[in-house]
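Budget justification aside, the reviewers requested a transparent look at the raw inputs and outputs of the sequence design task funded under Objective 1. We therefore reproduce one unedited record. The lines immediately below are the structure tokens for a 463-residue chain.
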């Protein structure tokens, strides 16, 4: 614009008009929206009245001015076409004037704070953990080390494990010794049984021989008794001689009977010895080696039971020790991982620094929670609704985003964990929060980028 044109503009406008503030210009946006609506309504009424007047004039003059009818009709058609063209090209601008627009808007996101899970020292688990570094969910960022964690229970379990292992080893050695001694005694008892059976067999054979001799003596005594009785009748043998012969016969018979009984007793001992039972006058049914083997068998069973109990106790100690080791490790070395996908917003600690449980370590920008905070005038705010569709036009010239209203905050200060917050939007007192799905899906956070939000007055999104 030239200097002369500027001077003309200065003459045409008063100093008061040239001093309009930016806030009045912004508030005039809503007034223009209202005036445009009134202009459109007035324009539609005028078109309707013109159409009625043309129809009445044509009907009144149809008879009187028949030759000019064709010309009048042509003029009406041309006028209608001109009005249609004007409405077609002016509808879009009028709609934009009628739409509600924010005074200012900014892309915002949630801030997530990571805190120390235990007391200890900080160790960096990832290189390049600077402000703005991109993060993935579950990625380990820091590690808190606590070498002074309580390990008394773990140490007690270790001692108990060592003692139980020593007990098991001692019982196993004792079991081996007892098994060896018991084996020797069982072998000795087996040898004794073989010898005893052989001894009884020999004794049985001796009894058989003695019985044979006694039977021969009995037969001889019986013959002599018979001869004595015959000679007594002839007088060659006295009565005393006969009695003596008869007495010898009876004695030899008793001797044979005695030997037979003793042989039967030896046979009973032999049968018992073959079955593992020993019968005698100087010992019981079991020899000393067999008795000791039985005692060692009982002791061996007791050791086996104690050994099984010690092994079960060791297994239980191992289980408790593993669980306690995990608890000690959880109290000694604890990783701190990112729980959102985003970027590092603020680093509050340094490697080697001692931190307390619950102390803030890192603040992360949750890019998946990206939203738009907008400030609007009161008249526009009163017409907004939850779910109302809207369009965000970034100032950096990037593509438009389409979303909807998720919060009408009014004068509220907004969430305390927001990266920007409503306090940064000071050009209008009322605030609204909008969700744009495409914004949250972008790989890079655009927090802090400004723009304008246009609210669609006729549509509501299904939240």
């Amino acid at each position: 614009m030239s200097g002369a044109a500027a001077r003309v503009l200065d003459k045409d406008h008063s100093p008061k008009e040239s001093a309009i503030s930016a806030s009045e210009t912004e508030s005039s946006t809503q007034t223009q929206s209202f005036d445009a609506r009134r202009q459109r309504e007035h324009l539609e009424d005028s078109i309707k009245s013109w159409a009625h007047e043309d129809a009445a004039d044509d009907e009144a003059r149809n008879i009187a001015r028949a030759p000019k009818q064709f010309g009048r009709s042509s003029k009406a058609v041309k006028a209608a076409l001109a009005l249609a063209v004007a409405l077609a090209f002016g509808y879009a601008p009028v709609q934009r004037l009628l739409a509600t627009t924010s005074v200012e808007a900014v892309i915002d996101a949630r801030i997530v704070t990571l805190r120390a899970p235990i007391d200890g020292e900080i160790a960096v688990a990832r290189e390049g953990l600077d402000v703005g570094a991109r993060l993935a969910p579950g990625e380990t960022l820091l590690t808190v080390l606590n070498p002074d964690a309580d390990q008394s229970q773990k140490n007690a379990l270790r001692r108990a494990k060592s003692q139980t292992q020593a007990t098991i080893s001692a019982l196993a050695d004792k079991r081996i010794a007892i098994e060896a001694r018991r084996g020797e005694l069982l072998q000795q008892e087996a040898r004794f049984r073989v010898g005893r059976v052989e001894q009884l067999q020999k004794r049985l054979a001796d009894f058989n021989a003695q019985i044979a001799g006694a039977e021969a003596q009995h037969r001889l005594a019986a013959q002599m008794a018979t001869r004595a009785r015959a000679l007594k009748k002839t007088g060659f043998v006295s009565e005393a001689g006969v009695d003596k012969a008869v007495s010898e016969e009876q004695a030899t018979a008793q001797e044979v009977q005695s030997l037979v009984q003793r042989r039967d007793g030896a046979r009973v001992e032999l049968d018992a010895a073959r079955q593992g039972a020993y019968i005698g006058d100087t010992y019981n049914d079991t020899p000393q080696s067999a008795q000791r083997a039985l005692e060692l068998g009982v002791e061996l069973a007791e050791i086996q039971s104690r050994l099984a109990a010690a092994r079960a106790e060791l297994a239980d100690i191992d289980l408790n020790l593993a669980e306690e080791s995990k608890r000690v490790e959880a109290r000694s070395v604890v990783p701190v991982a990112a729980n959102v996908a985003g970027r590092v917003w603020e680093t509050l600690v340094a490697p080697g620094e001692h931190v307390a449980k619950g102390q803030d370590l890192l603040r992360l920008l949750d890019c998946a929670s990206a939203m738009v905070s907008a400030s609007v005038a009161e008249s526009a705010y009163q017409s907004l609704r939850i779910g109302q569709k809207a369009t965000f036009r970034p100032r950096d010239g990037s593509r438009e985003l389409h979303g909807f209203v998720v919060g009408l905050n009014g004068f509220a200060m907004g969430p305390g964990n927001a990266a920007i917050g409503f306090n940064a939007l000071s050009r209008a007192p009322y605030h609204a929060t909008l969700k744009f799905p495409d914004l949250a899906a972008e790989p890079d956070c655009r927090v802090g980028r400004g723009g304008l939000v246009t609210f669609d007055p006729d549509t509501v999104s299904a939240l």
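The chain has three domains: 18-98, 104-139+340-460, 154-311. The CA atoms of residues 154 and 327 lie 9 Å apart. Computational costs for records of this kind are itemized in the attached budget.
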